[in-house]
Amino acid sequence: MKTLKNWTLAGQYDDRIELLVDGQHLFCLYVLEEDLFRVLLKRNGELALDRTWSIAPQQDVPWEGRDRLSVAGFGLPGYRLEQHDQRLVVASAALRVTVHQPLWLEWEYCGADGQWRPLAADRPTSAYLLNAHGDGVAHYQRRFGGERYYGLGEKSGDLERSGRRFEMRNLDAMGYNAASTDPLYKHIPFTITRREDVSFGLFYDNLSSCWLDLGNELDNYHPAYRRYQAEAGIWIITCSSGRRCWT
């Protein structure tokens, strides 16, 4: 896979900013609510699938799906944008994200005392990757001590998912082992990360077969990380502790 690296600010709109990455891909960062951001990657400026059946902020999704670019139903509170030499900062009242050069994101949340505190961060060494010979994508984030991972819907084993790798592929696994069998039928790439001070949700709105590694893989050349990899497309929603996660 090829790492996405160099970006320039390509556009600033009421609900989002857009970055041109490596001269060909669009990396879009939306502010949907004070506590809800969306990251959307358009390979070569286009979407492989322009509909979603997972995002329903006010009512159920129609059978034909919802326009993937639609922001209808969200509060759209606006944002503050700061531009620096090798980074830019997008902030709402509750969340702040720093976009670094080369491309990786660093997230912070605003605590009850009004101070910004670390929430999540991409892996600085190769955060976003695309398959140069197909549609595959990957996203790497840092793992920090004390984090616990939950979610993913119907999966075998403990509710706390740390240290495991899971596959999302709709498979009728009749007579499966409740402790270890994977994959199972449900496809819900949504995780909740819990720390002592904060929790946040991360949802990949992607129907492609995918894999989530929550600490099973170790690599001497990178800090501790978690990985999401899919056969095509990537879309991320993140939110902070005590906030809403639209799924």
Short description:
The chain contains no helices and 21 strands. With 247 residues, the protein is mostly beta strands. A hairpin with a 2-residue loop joins strand 4 and strand 5.
Mind explaining what this structure looks like?
This protein is an all-beta fold and 247 residues long. It has one domain (2-56, 64-242): glycosyl hydrolase (family 31) (Immunoglobulin-like). The chain has no helices and 21 strands. Strands 2-3-4-5-21-18-17-15 form an eight-stranded antiparallel beta sheet, with no helix packed on it. It is globular, with a radius of gyration of 18 Å. The protein starts with a strand and ends in an 8-residue tail after the last strand. Mean pLDDT is 92; it is low at 241-247.
* Tally of individual helices: 0
**Low-confidence region ranges:** 241-247
CATH homologous superfamily grouping? glycosyl hydrolase (family 31)
Q: CATH class, please? A: Mainly Beta
Q: What does the largest sheet look like? A: 8 strands, antiparallel
The spatial strand order of the largest sheet comes to: 2-3-4-5-21-18-17-15
Quantity of strands, as a count: 21
CATH fold topology: Immunoglobulin-like
What brief labels describe this structure?
Immunoglobulin-like, single chain, catalytic activity, Glyco_hydro_31_N_dom, globular, eight-stranded antiparallel β-sheet, Glycoside hydrolase family 31 N-terminal domain-containing protein, 247 residues, disordered C terminus, mainly beta, carbohydrate binding, six-stranded antiparallel β-sheet
Give a topology summary:
Blueprint: E1 2-3, E2 7-12, E3 16-21, E4 25-33, E5 36-42, E6 51-52, E7 66-67, E8 80-83, E9 87-91, E10 95-100, E11 104-110, E12 116-121, E13 128-130, E14 137-142, E15 148-151, E16 165-168, E17 190-194, E18 199-204, E19 210-213, E20 225-230, E21 235-239
Antiparallel strand pairs: 1-13, 2-3, 3-4, 4-5, 5-21, 6-7, 8-9, 9-10, 10-11, 11-12, 13-14, 14-20, 15-17, 16-19, 17-18, 18-21, 19-20
